[in-house]
Amino acid sequence: KNPCIISTKSDLILRDFDLIARLAELTYVNVACTITCMDESIRRLLEPGGAPSRNRFGVLEAFSGTRVTTGLHVMPIIPFLTDTRENLAALYASGREARVSYVLPGLLYLRGNTRQVFFSFIQRHFPGLYAPLQKLYGPGASRKAYKAEFYRMERQLRTAFGLQSNY
User: Fold this and answer.
1) Distance (Å, rounded) from C-alpha 136 to C-alpha 122?
2) Is the pLDDT of residue 139 over 80?
3) Which of 50, 82, 110, 133 might form a disulfide with 9, Cβ 3.0–4.6 angstroms?
């Protein structure tokens, strides 16, 4: 009867569907899928070991018919790559279709060695984004202004698609 939260980028969780659904009859169970974009060519670069986004929405839809709370985790959102209105609208439309209980967005936050690895990846795969991202993640107020504008747009879309942010 121990509550649990399962967060995944895989669809293999469906192998244990019956067990998880039964557990949700006894206690709180949350199944969340992290889904960052609907463009599979970008998704494969960002998450080479992850299941396709459509498969992950299939997981959420399957569990939405049970007592499991389902969550769409949209993180990390990468500025200038996965932060577009079009991408978020596609994700939120699919979330609504899958009847998710909530959506939890989160912008990319760079700490420690992650910063160097991230910028090496950007230089290799998206060189045109290197300078704008360096500027955004450098010192100054641009990050704060960017965040405020992004989350304003995100709230508008979440409201438009009738999605909750409270999990």
Assistant:
1) 14
2) no
3) 50
